[in-house]
Every structure is written in structure tokens, then in C-alpha cells.
Amino acid sequence: MHPTPNPDHTHDRRTRTVELNPVFSRPGEDTELPKFSLPDGESLPETAYQIVHDEAMLDGNARLNLATFVGTWMDDQAGRLYAEAADKNMVDKDEYPQTAAIETRCWTMLADLWNAPEPRDAVGTSTVGSSEACMLGGLALKRRWQHARRAAGRSTERPNLVLSSAVQVCWEKFCNYFEVEPRYVPISEEHRVLDGHELDRYVDENTIGVVAIMGVTYTGMYEPVARIAEALDEIEERTGLDVRIHVDGASGAMIAPFVQPELAWDFRIERVASINTSGHKYGLVYPGLGWVVWRDREALPEDLVFRVSYLGGDMPTFALNFSRPGAQVLLQYYLFLRLGEEGFTRVQRTSHDVATYLAGQIGEIPAFELWNDGTDIPVFAWRLREGHTENWDLHHLSDRLRARGWLVPAYPMPADLTEITVQRVVVRNGFSRNLAEAFLQDLRHEVAYLDALTGPMPSTGDGAAFHH
Fold it and tell me: Where are the transmembrane segments (predicted)?
């Protein structure tokens, strides 16, 4: 692994040390501390706190970060609970049996929310984030395929997984780490998401499953799980291949049940074997927490599950990580109790309303053309209208907005659409209508500034940048 060059690594003494403000230093303490090696001596807690506090203060304002899906705010009671539970290790189910029981309650609630046939018969687990949850969902698909192939006396070599070219990078990692061939279905102007079109070109006897995304990272659009399932039904009728779906619902699995409750995307569709979500995205919890649920015990092969006994009971565990925080699990349970279905509906619909309002306003700016309108998850993207200008692009606009504190990424679309650059806004809980108005004012101001240029802006060199 080759680390990115660090501007702090210079020969200047001042850039290799942390200097204390005289106001903060105490008699007898060092006034300079090394940045890249352990100090020789100790510091007072107050001094060490002030150093870390002041360095972290240089980060951006999380509330103005319109790039991230990850939650940036919780209430004071959640903060207290977080501090009280910071020492709990989720893997130690014998020492913390109540936290383990609460974990089970949470994923059972999710199984119920996602319309599992029998929620108490479903299987689930918490994870560090939805990336780990995706890995577990993919591993279950692979192992289930391997068992079926061996039972039929066939080879288990060359497994493949079918996914959209706009898939999140964790799926690329899964295929790389667990030796599965990724088969990317390219998106296009006509098919902006994986929608079942020509799916039979990618599915064969070695396909372990198809990934459907409820909220594509690039744009926030839903992939139509029901249509994908219909395409797989037709393939099975012709070929006999029974291919299951994993729904990557990192964001949408906590939006659709509350904003689009009639939309069939979950365990109501028989081909859906498993679903993951991010507790730390629209589950409204601080990072890092993910969840994955399998529709029933048949969907999760038993030989992937380890069992731990506690209090005379039996606790199945399936995870890539071992020690990990238990506090976020308690925060998720707190929010489930605190908000309930009515509260989650109100919170998610508020974010949804702000997103569709913002998209409508931005769509009216002559410089822009919307790629989508925020009616799926509260996320939308736009591109520069063709022929509008030769003097600036969306990377320049992103830089101008960053100078005002707003983080709004500009990036190329995935393979086969890389000539299209878009900007994306993620509306999260806490991004109010008032903040949206403030953002619109700054956006219009910067667009007017760029439109008034009499010559081209210099290249930013950011053409390949993308932040998930």
C-alpha cells in the first residue's frame, strides 16, 4: 500500500511538531510535542484535550456536508446513552447479554418492517456498517450457490455476481476479496439503473445472485426490485436457474417503508433473500452501524453461522469483524423506541420534502439539467446543461461552494457514462428548509458569478474524483 504524500512530512521543525498556545500550557509541561512519534513524557488531560480539540476544529461543518449519507446529529439523550455505553463490546455476548438481546430485537423489528413472512423466523445481525453487511449478504449467496452446485455434482468454480455499473465500491471489494466475478450491467441514458433489461445476457449457471440497490450512490435512484425479480422469473422459466436477489438498501431500506410504503421492494418479493441497511445513514444513528437480515433460516447457510451460549441460551453470530462497538446498537434501539413508525415517517418525509423542493428549485436554474428529482431517497443529482457555457464546469462550482462551507461533490458517472459529470445533494435529518434556502442563495450567487466570467476558468484537475 502506498500512502498519499503528507504535506506535514517536511524537514521544517515547525511542521513536525505541535506547538502549544502559552495560554493552554501548564508549568513543567513541554510546549512542543512531536506529530509523528510518541512524546517522551506525559501531558495533562486538559492539555491533550485542547490539542486534539483544536486540530479537529479545522474539519468542515458536518451540518453543511451535502456529500455524506452518514448521520451528523443526534439528540442529547442519545449522546448520554452513547457515553454510558462506549465501553460495551458487541462481540462479548456473555458479558453484555442485554445488549445482545437488544441487537436481536432491532433486527427482528427490521425484518417486520421489511415484511419478512415470519419476522421471528428471520435471521439478522448488526455490523460495523452496510459495507460489512453487504459482504455477509454476498457470502451467504455464494455459499448457498456452492451447496446447490455440489448437491447436483457440478463445479463450484467461477462464481459470478450481477450488479449495476453504478454499484457502491463495497461490492467491488466483495468480488475481489471473495473471488467472485463481477458482471456489471452498464447504466445508460435510457436505463439509468439496473432494471432487468437484458438481464439474461449476464445470468448463467454460475450466477450466485443479483444485487438490487435501493438508492444508487451516484444519484439516489431506486433500482426496481420487482422488475428485476420478474426478469429472473422469466429466466428461471426458460433455463431452470433459480437466482436470488440481495437488496442493498443502505439508504432506501430506511426510507421506502415510511415514504413509499406501497412500493414492493422487500421480502414481499419472494426472490429477495436478504436486505442490508446502514443504521448510521437514514437509520439516524452516529457511525458506524449496519444491519443485514435474511428472510428465513434457509437463506443463510448454517455452516456460515457460529454459535455462542449465554445465560443458558443460544446466540448465532455471523460477522467479519470481531470486537466492535455495542453503543450504536443501543442508539438504534433508542431511536426505534423514541420515534416509532409515526416518528420515522415524519422525519423521513421531512427530508424527502426538502429534497424534492431543492431539486425543483435547482431544476429551474438555466445552467442545470436534473438527472433525477429526489423522489426516491432524499438524494438527487444534476448536470450542466449542454451548451450552457465553455467557461466553467461543475468542479469549479463545487470549489466555489466549498469556499462558502458547503460540500457538494462533482464527479463523473460510472462506466459507459463517464463523459457526464454530475453534482449530488444528500438531504439528511437536520438539513432544514431554512438551511436549504441558505444553500440555494449561495448556489445561485456562485452560478451568477461563474456565468459572468469573460474567459474560461483554469482546470481543477478533479475529473476522476468521487466520494461515496
Answer: none
Do residues 107 and 319 touch, judged by C-beta distance below 8 A? no
3-state secondary structure of 445: helix
pLDDT at 30: 66
Task: Look up the CATH number of domain 341-451.
Answer: 3.90.1150.160
Q: How far is it, in rounded angstroms, from Cα 85 to Cα 295?
A: 30
The whole-angstrom separation of Cα 397 and Cα 404 is: 11
Predicted local confidence at residue 58, as pLDDT: 83
For residue 310, is pLDDT > 70? no
**All CATH 3.40.640.10 domain ranges in the chain, comma separated:** 80-336
Domain 80-336 in CATH 3.40.50.2300 = no
Sign of CA dihedral 225, 231, 236, 241: negative
Reported confidence tier of residue 72, pLDDT bands at 50, 70, 90 = confident
For CATH 3.90.1150.160, list the domain ranges present in the chain.
341-451
As a whole number of angstroms, the distance between CA 53 and CA 356 comes to: 37
Type and span of the H or E element at 335:
helix 327-363
Helices and strands (H, E) in the chain, number of each type: 10, 15
| Sheet order of strands, 410-412 included | 368-370, 379-384, 421-426, 410-412
Residue 12: Cβ-neighbour burial (10 angstroms; 0-12, 13-18, 19+)? exposed
pTM as predicted = 0.91
C-alpha cell of 111?
A: 425484518
Mean pLDDT of all residues in 394-412: 96
Average pLDDT, the chain: 91
